[in-house]
Amino acid sequence: MKGIVRDIVIVSVCVAVLWIGLTSYFGAQNPFYVVSSGSMYPELAMYDIIVISGHTLFEDVKIGDIIVFDRPKDHDKVIVHRVVAVVDDDPKTLRTKGDNNQRSIVGTDYPITKEEYIGTVVHVIPQIGFITKMLQPPINYIIIAVIIGIMIIRQVYKKDKKKLIDQAKAESNISDYNEFQSNEKIDQSTKDFDSIYSAQEKKPADKLDEENTKSEGVPEFFLDKEKGSEENKE
């Protein structure tokens, strides 16, 4: 369980660091938006992801730029349209229009001031926004559950693998010990056999020495006579 919590923390920290880096680089609290209508078609299609830059100042926005802004009448919706006119210079006020719309809409396309301005579109990633649609409930919960399940299985597999490795090591140590004991017994048996064999070899030699010792005190005449007697017996 600790491993799962650790992995979740690591992933969360990496995502947070990545997000902070992206917002800093593009100069916007949210640099990514998904096109949700066809008002800018064919320039922007539904489910395209647009990347905006907040580093482009409102004062530098010119006619022809595609900008992202809060809807002027209520600020409850984000709009992405093209600038078609500068209606006032003090303060600077813009009018926009969707490329696929016949005219500008009051309360939606103008008046756009610095207060409504969010950023200027700098990149377009086609059709990737389908992923966000797929991640709507309950699909997103299922994906999260699957990811957590995979993490749990991964941790359990690691533990089982470690147990098997430890068990294999223990069995190997026992086998090595038994083999060592067996080799010791064989070595001991060999030593005992060599001792017995040496003793048996030594015994006839001792007898021969004993006979030679006995023969030393017997006169040569009797020895020759005894030898001749043995030859006659044969």
- Principal-axes geometry comes out as rod-shaped
The N- and C-terminal alpha carbons lie at a distance of: 98 Å
Contiguous runs where pLDDT drops below 50 for at least 5 residues: none
Radius of gyration: 50 Å
How many helices does DSSP assign?
4
The average pLDDT is 77
Helical percentage: 40-55%
Structural class: alpha+beta
Widest sheet: strand ordering: 1-2-6-3-4-5
Encode the helix/strand succession as letters. Answer: HEEEEEEHHH
Beta strand %: 15-25%
Sheet having the most strands = 6 strands, antiparallel
- Total beta strands: 6
Could you state the oligomeric state of the chains shown?
Answer: single chain
Describe this structure in words.
The chain is built from four helices and six strands, in the order H-E-E-E-E-E-E-H-H-H. The model has no long low-confidence stretch (mean pLDDT 77). It is rod-shaped and about 120 Å long. 52% of the residues lie in helices and 17% in strands. It has a six-stranded antiparallel β-sheet with strand order 1-2-6-3-4-5, with no helix packed on it. The protein is α+β, with helices and mostly antiparallel strands and 234 residues long. A hairpin with a 7-residue loop joins strand 3 (66-70) and strand 4 (78-89). The longest helix is centred in the C-terminal third of the chain and has 78 residues, at 139-216.
